[in-house]
Amino acid sequence: MQNIVEYCQVNRNPFYYHFQDIPALTEYSIQEWTEENSKIIVNLERRSNALP
Questions:
Q1: Is the pLDDT of residue 52 over 80?
Q2: Distance CA 4, CA 32 (A)
Q3: Region of 51 on the Ramachandran plot (φ > 0 left; ψ -120 to 50 alpha; else beta)
Q4: CB neighbourhood size of 10 (10 A)
Q5: Is the confidence at residue 51, as pLDDT, over 80?
Q6: Helices (H), 1-52
Q7: Which tens digits make up the pLDDT trace of 4-41?
Q8: d(CA 46, CA 5)
Q9: Cα–Cα distance measured from residue 6 to residue 4, given in angstroms and rounded to the nearest whole number
């Protein structure tokens, strides 16, 4: 935990305000990563389908 808050340069209170614990942060991070990459894949597929 200490490494995470030091790396993010935040205190523990803001961390716990947003996340219950480290597994909650992990789940959130995976969801965000998945959503962002899904958008990229959809855009690439659209571009690919638009090619002559």
A1: no
A2: 18
A3: beta
A4: 13
A5: no
A6: 2-8, 12-18, 22-50
A7: 889 989 888 988 899 999 999 999 999 999 999 999 99
A8: 39
A9: 5
What length is written for the chain?
52
CB 20 within 8 A of CB 26: no
String of DSSP letters for 12-24: HHHHHHH-SSHHH
Please tell me what DSSP assigns to residue 9: T
Among 31-35, 40-44, 45-49, which stretch is predicted with the lowest mean pLDDT? Answer: 45-49
CB 11 within 8 A of CB 5: yes
For residue 29, give both structure tokens: 């991070």
